[in-house]
Write a structure and sequence with these properties.
The protein is mainly α and 169 residues long. The chain has six helices and no strands. Helix 1 runs antiparallel to helix 2, helix 1 packs antiparallel against helix 6 and helix 5 runs antiparallel to helix 6.
Length: 169
């Protein structure tokens, strides 16, 4: 074998190895990404199921509170923990683009509105209203309006989350 043939063989072997390595890396990363997205989708589903169960509990709590308000019972001990609303995997799904791949723009907006509603601000407002009711500094009509509105919002968002859950499955 001549020197030129040896150089050519070495060059072809090196380039082939480099190309194979790049292809292997790209395929491995694509497989890892697909697997990671599948895991995130699974956890988003579990997170949405958990949130739907919370909404069901909060619906019952608001209904009980409205019955107590209707009967002028000021010994209300409701505390709304909207910070228990889970959003970690939903946010990761947003970051990875999974939400945008699976949902329409309208559905993305709906999900965002749901996430914004169940935060510390609304929680503080509702729990402050309960305190006002206990201290007799809010009227029965105002208290009823606030929590009837909240009950409507919870029911609406529960339906929306069920719809989104079906689309993300």
């Amino acid at each position: 074998m001549t020197f030129t043939q040896q150089v050519l063989a070495t060059l072809v072997g090196s380039v082939s190895g480099l190309v194979f390595g790049i292809i292997l890396f790209v395929l491995t990363e694509r497989l890892r990404s697909c697997r990671w997205k599948k895991i995130i989708r699974k956890h988003v589903g579990r997170e949405l199921d958990h949130n739907l169960s919370l909404l069901s509990k909060w619906t019952a709590d608001v209904e009980k509170l409205l019955r107590q308000v209707a009967s002028d019972d000021r010994s209300v001990y409701s505390f709304f923990m909207y910070t228990n609303f889970q959003r970690s995997f939903i946010q990761q799904a947003f970051a990875l683009g999974i939400i945008y791949e699976r949902l329409s723009d309208e559905d993305v907006s709906t999900l965002n509105n749901v996430l914004l509603h169940f935060d510390q601000g609304i929680m503080a407002h509702l729990n402050g209203s309960v305190k006002q009711w206990q201290n007799a500094t809010i009227s029965k009509a105002d208290m009823s309006k606030r929590f009837e509105f909240e009950l409507q919002e919870i029911n609406k968002m529960s339906e929306q989350l069920m719809h989104l859950r079906a689309k993300l499955a």
